[in-house]
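Practice set, problem 2.
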Amino acid sequence: MARQDLRFDKLTAPPEAENLPVQHLAAAFNDTSASYKFFWFLAILEFVKSGKSNIAPIDFLLSHMAAGAWYPVNYFRLSFGKSDALSEVVKSFISEKNIPISESYANVAKIAEAVLRDDPKSKAAKSLFERGRFVPFRFLTPWFANELKGIRDQEKQEKIVALASANFQNHQNLSLYRFTADKKHIEIQPRWFGYMARHLEILESFCHWHLIQFVQKFNPNVPGISQKLFAPLQRHLATAKKFWELAGPLNCIYSGKRITDKSASIDHFLPWSFVTHDLLWNLIPTSKEVNSSKSDSLPSLERYFQPFAVAQYQAFHVVSKKSGVSKILEDYEILFQDKGGTSPMKMSQEKFIELLHSNIYPQRELARNMGFNVDWVYKG
């Protein structure tokens, strides 16, 4: 499910198809209050992508659900809402099974599947099995909305199983899938299977677009939601390295030590896993040792903001006096323009620092509320 192209078109409906009730698939994502629908369908697409058969083990799909939610929940700390159980499933895997936060989608899926198979009594397995009691059945609700009216919740599962089977060859309302006798597998309807295989990328984008809208509701002020559904992409620090080379040598704001070319590393003052960008006003050289120690923590503003901001101001003015640097300095021009300030070229140090603080402080508070470690201090 790793995706390098993060340009999401506004796909509010899946592709049309003759003799397929695609309106029910679209309805599955309307006004949903739970994340499972998105990750369940993405897991089905992942299975279809493998091209093995049209009979998918539910354990495979549940494991890929957990893997799909891994980075949004664990790495980027996004909320799916207070009542969303999938977040707790993912958190139980990292706390109980010690899976690294940066583990790949494929490996998380393999580990989760192995846990379901080999350690079914673990908390992680039980929490994922619990999703399996509801998710595969409730996803089909739009196909049988009329038939399910007035049915009590505890009776819906068996009703959906019967309806899915009865409509598996009903060309007026082909069910997306039906359940095997042991309810451990789903059998994807062949016509639906072919449809998904033909439109994999479009359907993934359709689901991702709706997932972004869903996640945005619970994280309204978080930057770069679309960048936070997947494993981090490669960072682009060439401009930052060039900028700080032009600015000249400086002492590390965290350790106080002189930074040399061999020891230099670029630190995101607000952690990259929160901002998901490489804009210059958030970057500062440090040593590799310090950068590794800081990781994705939020540094103490009381201790480090002033030296950070001063270093930013001085570096900007040194670089701005050099020729051919207008492109490099765009990040600052855009930032201060958005803050209602004049060009940073004309600002006093006091004004520059004030506006930088007005940008960083609210973001830092939001990151704190999302669970990022705060007030980090270097103890080297």
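Problem 2, part (b): a different protein.
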Amino acid sequence: MMRIALLGAGAMGTIIGALLTKAGYDVELVDNYKDHVDTLNEKGAHIVGGIDEIIPVKAVMNDGLSGKYDLLISLTKQTTMKESLENAMPFTHDETMILTLQNGIPEDIAAELVGIDRVVGGGMEFSGTFVAPGVSKLASGKETLGISFGRPTGVIDEKALEIQAMFKNALGHCELTNNLMGVRYTKLTDNSCFSGLATALGCLVGDILDNRKAMECIAYNGRECANVIKAKGINPVELFSLCPTIENVSFETKEELDRVIEYWTNIYKAYRGQKASMIQDLEKGRKCEIYQINGKFIDEAKKLGIPTPFNDKILELVVEIQDGKTSLEEAWEKNLDRFEIPAL
């Protein structure tokens, strides 16, 4: 059985680590938040929300790694990902794999350290919120538990199949794909829309769903993402019913816009209570991943000559919040009016 170190036991990491442990796998949850690590060891991981269960786990601080691990599951923010992996390198061997489950496109960072052949990456299909030390909320339904992953090279081999079987046992669903970039860009679209806009407005997913102008922003932002994906020649895959193809999320008329808004609404109504991880970072005084999320689409679009006014505005507003120019509490009232919706 693989020995696993899960780097970054925040909301999502705690849920994944606990469920892998419950399924019988040898997992250490690694984090730099001492109260959280101590509580996990003393009381177990308490998962609330979509499920309610306390699961005994093993947790260590970043300086508590020991021996050799067969798999590193990387869940730290991209802002600290390289440092986290470098810290773990002395505790790996020549065949240790790295599974990147961060937002954005983090595989390149891992590949710099171990080579592309020892990297797998993917996206999570559920959402989580950190409640308190030792406590994480599954903010979406139990049926959303799952990941999709694959190798950047597209190869499906015995090691990838072993990781798939592990996550199927623990979460109930795990799709192994030969189109990782399709998975990545679908998830990046998800984050750029509902995480990006929610952070710019300081709100939950449900607040966006209940507001027509906010949903129009989602539609326009999603269309920008789809345009970039198509221009890059990437075939997006379906994750939790989202597939950001031109056919699904583009529009030219008001009637088509209404259809696209209904498309987004039907997908995200199961996630009404979700609080974006970027909001959680800002609440803790940390830098968020806006440059790796909406900023990634902006960077790629510039190379392709594609305008991205809604992604641009989301990044601008989130940076203002991050820099202390606007508070999360006032963001909804102050920032929603700063989006200009084109006439159709």
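Answer key, part (b): The first helix runs from residue 11 to 22. The chain has a mean pLDDT of 95.
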